[in-house]
Amino acid sequence: MQTEARDHGGNLDAAMRRHGGDMTRWIDLSTGINPVPYPVPHLEPRAFTALPTRGDMEALRAAAAVCYDSRAHVTPMAGAQAVIQAVPHLARPGDARVLGPTYNEHTAALGACGWRVAEVTTPEALAGADCAVVVNPNNPDGARYDPARLRALASQVGLLVVDESFVDPDPELSLAPMLHRGPENVIVMRSFGKFYGLAGLRLGFALSGAEIAARLADLAGPWPVSGPAIEVARAALGDRDWQRETSARLARDAARLDALALRAGWSLVGGTPLFRTYATPDAAAAQEALAQHHIWSRVFPYAPGWLRLGLAGSQDDWDRLSAALG
Amino acid sequence: MQTEARDHGGNLDAAMRRHGGDMTRWIDLSTGINPVPYPVPHLEPRAFTALPTRGDMEALRAAAAVCYDSRAHVTPMAGAQAVIQAVPHLARPGDARVLGPTYNEHTAALGACGWRVAEVTTPEALAGADCAVVVNPNNPDGARYDPARLRALASQVGLLVVDESFVDPDPELSLAPMLHRGPENVIVMRSFGKFYGLAGLRLGFALSGAEIAARLADLAGPWPVSGPAIEVARAALGDRDWQRETSARLARDAARLDALALRAGWSLVGGTPLFRTYATPDAAAAQEALAQHHIWSRVFPYAPGWLRLGLAGSQDDWDRLSAALG
Fold it and tell me: Fewer CB atoms inside 10 Å of the end CB: C or N, chain A?
């Protein structure tokens, strides 16, 4: 199946088969998921047993709107990935342009639905596209785009998709607070799982005008997200103290990782507080060397020198990473 | 939004606004969800924090295949509803026929994607459709169709969708064990949440041939279901003892509900062990009378006499229901 064959981080089990060691032995740094998750509160049985009600969904939407400082329409979906899967169905297939290199699911999802997809390398080259996709900050190189400039770009494209999956620690980059009263052809995507370290819950949000929100809701159906996801997210999205402390810790830990990588002779390509991408002499060899230490990383078929690392969590994991890179 | 406006069970919060009383006061019998859920085991933190791996998904598929006694390809999705949402995208829109009256999401999802949808009242009238939908056993009238006869129907339609959301207590009705080596144009849908009483987890399955499975996987994306759903379902789908005891209890409790309804002067239209539909002189009045007792039920716009009730769970809930109907 095409989806199965696509290249992803997070595919630790394949690495385990090759290098041995069970889940408890490995440190998975192949994703950009915060390794110190929001503490899952006790979940009421109802979160598991009952269909989420409209009231549950409304409360989730409200929590996201406050957290993201947005008065746009909020559509909860089963992960930012679910928004990516829905986007190709929002308009008749035409010419899509993706600002790249970037997360490969955008191109894959659009292409699978009959869009002609081209990768462009500057925001200016997006003008004229029927659908334009920008990841801000970008994965894996950390490129950052001024949200006001992106907003202005909306008038030059059919549909503008801004994937803000990694923006939480850098809220000043987000277009979400500017989406009030248009433009109506913009979708901002937010991931819940990455910043809150709870990717298993499968939750993300689309922020948009009313018309796109209605079509996304039709595509998603009445119960797109789980009860546990709703209950955990309502707590997490409202926990300003945890968010502030987490952003500060992620910034410190990103600097710590950069220092280890520099010592190993690598240079920083770019990144966000949730992941760092380094230029290495041979990324495949570096990945293999880390895997010998049961540390899993991410390489990119289009950039043979690039290695991406997420942050380690526990002190023990940092020590192992330091030793492996030393 | 269209989805929000559609008529569903499970919408207890609207009833609460009208009649007062919080969630703890109400007995929600408006759905066909087993009120005695599979006991949620302790969940490892990884279920919440990590993206499900291919290995996790493969194990879930294997557990479903064994439980459903099927060698077809299994595609896990975020609820049977997610399969319903995907079906319209599996073929170019054409003439769809739905054997009805039945669960309204099939017609709604197909219609929203440009299919012309007609409701027909006999299986024979499905022949010639580009897409034919049968719910077996049917919701809400409990009509049952011979799976071998449905299998034969596949050669007379473009795509045959068999929604088996309520078939778990009646496995002899399932087409799943017959899907080996074709026909290739059949999708069997299974719900996890209803029989296991865990609708909040959002999990369902499509059983099909390889080609449809590949297209469903493309539509669903790489991480369509949550870690908690995978972990709970792997345990529940393999628990034969719980399944056997639950099927027996549901049968007993369905008979118990029928006895109460008969005493109230209603007659059985039909049902499954998970819900019962009764003919009443005035279903809206009956629903209102039950709501005064904080018991929520389901009525149907197309059948003003029909009232559907799910089963009560605790003895206390049965006593309250008995008093309300008495």
Answer: C
The per-residue pLDDT for A252 is 98
In chain A, which residues have their Cβ closer than 8 Å to the Cβ of B5?
A: none
ipTM of the complex: 0.93
For tokens 């699911």, the residue is A105
**Do B223 and A217 count as a contact with CB atoms less than 8 A apart?**
no
A91 touches chain B (CB under 8 A): no
Question: Rounded to an integer, what distance in angstroms lies between the CA atom of residue A58 and that of residue B11?
Answer: 13
Identity of the residue numbered A267: S
- Looking at the structure, do residues A100 and A233 belong to the same domain, yes or no? yes
Residue B141 has pLDDT above 80, yes or no: yes
- State mean pLDDT over B24-38: 95
For B244, the token pair is 């056997």
Q: How far apart are CA B141 and CA B279, in angstroms?
A: 10
Report CB contact under 8 Å: A226, B226. Answer: yes
Distance in Å, alpha carbon of B222 to nearest chain A alpha carbon: 6
pLDDT at B174: 98
What CATH number does residue B120 fall under?
A: 3.40.640.10
Q: Say yes or no for a CB contact (<8 Å) between A50 and B28.
A: yes
- 0.80 cut: is pTM over it? yes
Cβ contacts of residue B300 below 8 Å, gap of 6+? B101, B140, B283, B306, B308
Instruction: List all residues 6 or more positions away from B119 whose beta carbon is below 8 Å from its beta carbon.
Output: B97, B98, B99, B100, B101, B107
Is the sign of the CA dihedral B42, B44, B45, B49 positive or negative? negative
Rounded average pLDDT over B139-154: 97
Quote the mean pLDDT of chain A: 94
Question: CA-to-CA distance for A206 and A191, rounded, in angstroms?
Answer: 9
Reported as a single tens digit per residue, the pLDDT across B254-275 is 999 999 999 999 999 999 999 9
Residue B294: CATH number of its domain: 3.90.1150.10
Summarize the confidence of residues B3-32 as an average pLDDT. 79
Is the four-CA dihedral A243, A245, A247, A253 of positive or negative sign?
A: negative
**Domain boundary, last residue among A238, A256, A281:** A238
- A31/B48 Cβ within 8 A: no
Residues from chain B that touch A12, judged by Cβ atoms under 8 A, are: 53
Q: How many CB pairs under 8 A join A and B?
A: 182
User: Whole domain around residue B194: which residue ranges?
Assistant: 46-238
pLDDT band at A2 (very low <50, low <70, confident <90, very high): very low
Q: State the SS3 of A4-34.
A: HHCCCCCCHHHHHHHHCCCCCCCEECCCCCC
Q: How many domains does chain B have?
A: 2
